[in-house]
Amino acid sequence: MKPPDFVNLRAGGPECPSDFTLDRLHAGELPPEEAQRTERHVAGCSDCGARMAERRAGFGAIEGVDPRVMLGRIRKGLDEPARASLPERLSGWTRRLLAPLAMVATAAVVLMVVVPGQQGTRMKGALGLHVFRLTGDHSEEVVSGEAFAPGDRLRFRVDVPAEGHVTVFGVEASGALYTAWPLEPGVQTRFEEGNGIELPGAVSLDAQPGREMLYLVHCPLEVGPPECTSGGAGEKPVCPEGCAMTPFIMEKGG
Prior knowledge:
The chain has helices at residues 19-26, 32-44, 46-57, 67-79, 86-98, and strands at residues 128-135, 138-142, 147-148, 153-160, 164-171, 177-181, 190-191, 194-204, 210-220, 244-252. The longest helix has 13 residues, at 32-44. The chain is an alpha+beta fold and 254 residues long. It is built from five helices and ten strands. Strands 3, 5, 6, 7, 9 and 10 form a six-stranded mixed beta sheet that branches. It has a four-stranded antiparallel beta sheet with strand order 2-1-4-8, with no helix packed on it.
């Protein structure tokens, strides 16, 4: 029997990137030029935007699966005394992890590495932007591609793969570039490597409708704080060489 072609497996139209390509984009494994090309397509394609949103949501995108419960079971298993060999324990953990996915993964079984302290399945060491919407006296994490309303107040947490400077830029549907974080000059933008780093302050969305992009930009220490310019409507910001970025899609209603 001919094995499945995972490299070309895809949803959406024939011009859309394959599932394998989106997985590599999400993991930060694509070469820079291919990553830029794929990000531009995802930003302008509702189908692929939804596909990327599912990847960023991780286990939380699967109905009936509570990521917090699953992570709790993983941590408990890691803390238990070693009663069996490492290969046997890994095999057991893998079976328990993949059991809830059996009904939705009939074509292939994908082994995912879950990093304690992170929601979803983002690989350790990847640049990540987590967006939280403030509602009353609490906040909830939202995923890329969700709908937003004027006046929504957002806070950010970031995953930083190496010590450096970070800034969150926004690109309006018109192509206009603005700084979503930091909100004021003089704020410390230098962070050490780490996950779930909370950026102080909150940004309030204006009433301009349409698709709006957020980009977390990370620059190494030798480059300094990101200084980027607009790349135009539908394009990511133009930033100094050596800086990395990751996008987040907002569908803003009027």
